[in-house]
Amino acid sequence: MTLPSDTSALANQGRLSGLRARVFAPTSVQKLLAFGSLVLLLIFFSFASPAFMQMDNILGILQATAVNGVLAIACTFVIITGGIDLSVGTLMTFTAVICGVFLTYWHLPMWIGVIAAIATGAICGTISGTLTAKMKIPPFIATLGMMMLLKGLSLVVSADKPIYFTDTENFYMISQDSLIGHVLPSLPIPNAVLILFFLAVLSSITLNRTALGRYTFALGSNEEAVRLSGVNVDRWKIAIYGLGGAICGFAGLLIASRLNSAQPALGQGYELEAIAAVVIGGTSLSGGSGTILGTIIGAFIMSVLTNGLRIMSVAQEWQIVVTGLIIILAVYADILRRRKG
């Protein structure tokens, strides 16, 4: 008997996505709990320090959330498939360095540097997906190797020194300028936040309204069942990792614009905050469930917590301890949730 092709297998998407919706989809209660936790953190830090609610500090939180949020969106796609991507932080740095090479070293137009950063992210993500899908290397090992590889390449390409964008006119505007602020001066929301929300809406539509999104959930729910349905699982998995890499390219542009430089030693450690935001937002590390909205809420929780602890003069080492505890609690909550399911 001949297995159906990818085209005919689309008929199975309804059954696969229906199973995912009934069994694995996060409930609205979980989202409300995450949102409620965010509100409580805002209230607590507002009373703990008068400086917390000042406009400059709020803008700092928004800028930090923009970068972490974009990385978390990239992780969401991969984690829903049941995989993991530890390379998002160093990939962000590598795309920023590539952008710096195009704009500062080669003096090319800014739009070419932007496309180069996004394309570089997509290529690196595709390589990670190929290592996982074709070579059957576990995602943890494949992306760990990619993380170290990209960290080294960033240092090699930049000659182990920052690349500054001082000669690139208006590059800072990508992240730091405010289109809304020009219209409403009392509401200077950075462009980075607008890009975050734009990507979040686009990713949410992709995840819930396209074949790529349906297969993302299906792979995390039961990859073998999808394979037996005649679907080219490897192709879709590579596409998902490639999409995640392209999104990391946007994060690279945001952080490079924010710092007005590409810092080759930056990036490692960002993947932990991104994964924590995804899990806090309700996405299961076992795959099969997750929402972009939950991820954005999780990203804001991480940014508010980090900023609030810093405002309260909590030592950095204790900030790391708190972040680790939150990750453990979030994963344990996911385990309990799946047991009940």
TrEMBL record:
Q: Which residues form a coiled coil?
A: none
Keyword Cell membrane part of the UniProt annotation: yes
Q: Which GO terms describe its molecular function?
A: transmembrane transporter activity
Q: What is this entry's stated membrane topology?
A: Multi-pass membrane protein
Q: What compartments host this protein?
A: Cell membrane
Predominantly, its location class is membrane
> What is a single cellular component term in the Gene Ontology annotation?
plasma membrane
Q: Which residues are listed as membrane-spanning?
A: 32-52, 58-79, 86-105, 111-133, 140-159, 179-202, 238-259, 318-336
Give the keywords, sorted.
Cell membrane, Membrane, Transmembrane, Transmembrane helix
What name is this protein filed under?
Ribose import permease protein RbsC
Organism classification: Bacteria, Pseudomonadati, Pseudomonadota, Betaproteobacteria, Burkholderiales
